[in-house]
Amino acid sequence: MASSHAPELYFHILNDYPAIDNHAHPLLTAESRNRLAFEGLTSEADGPALEDAVYTLPHSTARRDLARLYGLPRHTSWDDIKKHRAARPYDDLCRLCFEKANIQCILIDDGLSGVKDMAEQYRWHDRYTSSPTRRIVRVEVVAEDILTELFEAGQLDSDPGIEGLTRFAVLLHTRLKANADNPSVAGFKSIVCYRTGLDVDVASNVPAEIEALRGAYGQFRLRANVPVRLENKPLNDFVVRMTLEIAAEHNKPVQFHTGLGDADITLTRANPAHLQPLIAKYPRAKFVLLHASYPYTREAGYLTAVYKNVYLDIGEVFPAVSMQGQKALIRQALELVPTNKLMWSSELFLTFFSGIGAWSCYMCIGDGHWWPETYYLGSHQARRALASVLYEAVREDDLTPEEAARVAKDILFHTANRVYLLGLEARYT
């Protein structure tokens, strides 16, 4: 049985050790800080369904955590919390959240809708961290930009043929390689889970891919002034395979959204088990399964345990899942996953795209995003849940205190530092 002083080793680390946030999104600009409903802080819901978010356990926990952050009484109401934050200078609010989150470096996916209009650019976030922010390139956005350019220039039409597919492929390869060569880019990300599911075909189907280009062109013609959306499976799968090839050549990880998402996701196709054939085909590519693949954490853990090239991120569930759920998820991950293959992120992901006649909202929690409080809540709640689970492991003699301390350091900092080749030193006293 562990000695009574054992928790001190890793409680101190979990309070004070710096973190690398391996998957985040940009903050809103000061001018846009009130454009989105703050209730989205803890919920994947949108529209009328978001009204019920304030009745969830994650919301109650977040309300008390925010009251503590702002120096308010524990039982401050949600309306008073919103009034308080609205009255604080934005820079002061951002600095407070990042100081308490103790995040040394952020890897930002800046490819989601709304960033250009409402959010800061990735380099802007350097003012709140001690190590430079790095980019994660969203590959579907790269492909959509290329298609839009080709369609607008008249270089792809309703009958693209093999020449059209080749033209698209050459441009995609060139752009992805340029990003892979860019030292500011830490890796790539795919949201194929949202678009057509994780059951990505491992082999090319040229006739189907040409037909998909026809469909994309038809979409472009029908939806004037609406960006092209990559939503045809053969073309989505084509983009993923090329990304994995280039990422493997350049030793850049590829993040995959898995599991937890909003109503736009088909949940049964968000199970990371669908990725197994792809993982096996590309053994030199590093797969990072995001958001603990919730509710498929055990499936993700299995893949991480049996494939050398798979890593598991345990972000997004903080603060979207109740505290008991967070601890249960970490326990499930630790059932199988090598502890040196787990990483943390703070993500809260909320995107908007313009549908026909309306705006639609898509959210996924875990990585810091839009609001500075998401970085704080993601860090604070993850550290608290990890401390509890690691204490249990020491108490049950599954880990020594020294091993628990190492696990904490790896999850917070060292695994991401190694996987993304960041070359950072943890700034920890």
TrEMBL record:
InterPro entries hit by this protein: Amidohydro-rel, Metal_Hydrolase
SUPFAM superfamilies: Metallo-dependent hydrolases
Residues annotated as domain Amidohydrolase-related: 203-407
Record-linked Pfam families: Amidohydro_2
Molecular function via GO: hydrolase activity
Gene3D superfamilies: Metal-dependent hydrolases (3.20.20.140)
Superkingdom of the source species: Eukaryota
Protein name, per record: Amidohydrolase 2
Gene source species: Lactarius akahatsu
